[in-house]
Amino acid sequence: MYKLLKQEGLARRGTVDTVHGTFQTPCFMNVGTAGAIKGGISTMDLKELKCQVELCNTYHLHLRPTDTVIRKMGGLHKFINWDRPILTDSGGFQVFSLAKLRRIKEEGVYFQSHIDGRRIFMGPEESMRIQSNLGSTIAMAFDECVENPATYAYAKQSCARTTRWLQRCKAEMARLNSLPDTINPHQLLFGINQGCTFDDLRVEHMKQIRELDLDGYAVGGLAVGEPTEEMYHVLDVVVPHMPEHKPRYLMGVGTPSNIIEGVARGIDMFDCVMPSRNARHATVFTWNGIMHLTNQCYETDDRPIDEHCDCPACRHYSRAYIRHLFKAKEMLAGRLAVMHNLYFYNTLTERIRSAIETDTFAQFRAEYSGRLAKLIR
């Protein structure tokens, strides 16, 4: 499934073959939580914005419109009209971050919906069944997401539970994929490494779950408020123990600089709501740094958002016009800014892939890792 094409240092250039097509890595997955990118972006737009993989969320789709409705509609690909790979998050993070009340037991988690308060249960088998109903390309294992900071004792106990849950996910996925009426019998399963910021727990957990020979492996539980250097340290510790012949996914990350630094440490896949969420609040990413489009200095600026970008927004509209749209609270403002940011992120990983291919990633990192994090005033 994963093919390593080129390597420069720890940075990897590869491909991932799936039943819904091949995607190139390093890859940024665009987050369409409830089956759409917030900001009025359609799946047809996503193709123009160079999106390779869309990420949708099990928890949200299970609550609304429900996975059974989506199954009746022929699966998520047909439902949202997308013929490229889809990765579905297991719902674990949302259960632990959004649910009003929750109770963790060995069988799974009892919680109340953040929408209407109704009582719901989700465990490894339930998460796999929901994701099977969705028919996504890649399903994520159901894990326990521990709040940082956590005690060492609890983090250790949680890692053990996550491993047991992962074994159950694998068994249930194999069963579901063997059924004659399964929407996607070739659904892939990725396991998630946990362990908070404890080096020994991270390494030991990674060693345990790699023995299960899954289709890919993710590093979870980061980008939840810990210092950036702490996140990088965890990657430095964990990545050497991840299988070389499987895709490596850093969940929920992050800024353009985070992506460059993650690639430098051997990560292949990323996702984050940041480009769309920030765009809806007039914050955009450019090749010279970060801009706030509502700033007064853009009131009569007739340049595009980024003079080095050829996204639909930059090809057709000025900073002054988009600023006006934000000030007037027009929906088009967010749509144009989201289109720009998604295009920027997908172009960033495209340029990273090219740099690795030509052995110039070290220079690319030196030039852009710091620059892309700066605020333009």
Automatic annotation (TrEMBL):
Entry's cofactor comment: Binds 1 zinc ion per subunit.
Domain tRNA-guanine(15) transglycosylase-like: 11-369
Keyword Metal-binding carried by entry: yes
Family matches, as Gene3D superfamilies: Queuine tRNA-ribosyltransferase-like (3.20.20.105)
InterPro entries in the cross-refs: ArchSynthase1/Queuine_TRR (IPR050076), TGT (IPR004803), TGT-like_sf (IPR036511), tRNA_ribo_trans-like (IPR002616)
Active site: D89, D271
Class of this enzyme: transferase
Any one GO CC term of the record: cytosol
Single GO molecular function: tRNA-guanosine(34) queuine transglycosylase activity
Family recorded in the similarity comment: Belongs to the queuine tRNA-ribosyltransferase family.
Biological role stated in the UniProt entry: Catalyzes the base-exchange of a guanine (G) residue with the queuine precursor 7-aminomethyl-7-deazaguanine (PreQ1) at position 34 (anticodon wobble position) in tRNAs with GU(N) anticodons (tRNA-Asp, -Asn, -His and -Tyr). Catalysis occurs through a double-displacement mechanism. The nucleophile active site attacks the C1' of nucleotide 34 to detach the guanine base from the RNA, forming a covalent enzyme-RNA intermediate. The proton acceptor active site deprotonates the incoming PreQ1, allowing a nucleophilic attack on the C1' of the ribose to form the product.
Protein name, entry field: Queuine tRNA-ribosyltransferase
